[in-house]
Design goal:
Blueprint: H1 2-28, E1 33-37, E2 43-45, E3 48-57, H2 60-66, H3 68-72, E4 77-88, E5 94-97, E6 102-105, E7 108-110, H4 114-120, E8 130-133, E9 138-148, H5 154-158, E10 164-170, E11 174-182
Parallel strand pairs: 1-11
Antiparallel strand pairs: 2-3, 3-4, 4-9, 5-8, 6-7, 6-10, 10-11
Length: about 180
């Protein structure tokens, strides 16, 4: 009986210490400030500016063409293509990694589909998720973000085209997003 009591005391102490540590960390690192920009608005990402020119769901024929491998596995797939212009506003050659840019809608998040990225930007031999831009140079790329039915509850999947989506390019200490689709 005393072993059970000792185990219970140890468990309570460990839970208490965990709660204390979690509270201490949360007060030490405050939530991020949120800055949101609109489609067509220049968003700063020093020394660059980012601008979403357009975003839309890919039509079914193009989806069938680009994602034929995924569709072989009977995945119900949708893709949002974000038309993004990156411009170097600095005075030196700059590097920007866009592979970390995520598309969000509520709790759903996803990164760039690399194979589709290469296909959608095949007209640009220099297309890369790591851009090197000279001062004043800009480049426009098409960023594909895929979603499959299992990412959502059935009722959400039926209205997936009517959700609000944001491109997030910085998380902390300032979360910076660009609204790309507004339901």
């Amino acid at each position: 009986m005393s072993k059970k009591i000792a185990a219970a005391v140890v468990a309570v102490v460990l839970i208490g210490l965990s709660c204390f540590r979690l509270t201490a960390l949360n007060t030490r690192y405050p939530p991020p400030e949120i800055r949101c920009y609109a489609t067509g608005q220049a968003a700063p990402y020093e020394p660059f500016t980012l601008m979403v020119n357009n975003a839309a769901f890919m039509d079914e024929a193009r989806t069938q063409e680009i994602f034929q491998d995924e569709l072989l596995y009977d995945q119900n797939l949708r893709c949002i293509v974000v038309d993004l212009t990156v411009q170097n506003k600095g005075t030196e050659t700059g590097h920007i990694e866009i592979s970390s840019f995520i598309l969000e809608s509520g709790a759903w998040k996803n990164g760039i589909h690399y194979t589709a990225f290469l296909q959608l930007n095949e007209d640009q031999p220099q297309a890369s998720l790591l851009l090197t831009l000279e001062p004043g140079e800009s480049r426009t790329l098409r960023l594909p973000y895929t979603m499959i039915e299992s990412h959502f509850r059935p009722v959400q999947w039926k209205t997936v085209e009517h959700r609000t989506y944001s491109l997030t390019y910085s998380l902390y200490p300032v979360k910076q997003t660009i609204d790309v689709l507004n339901g």
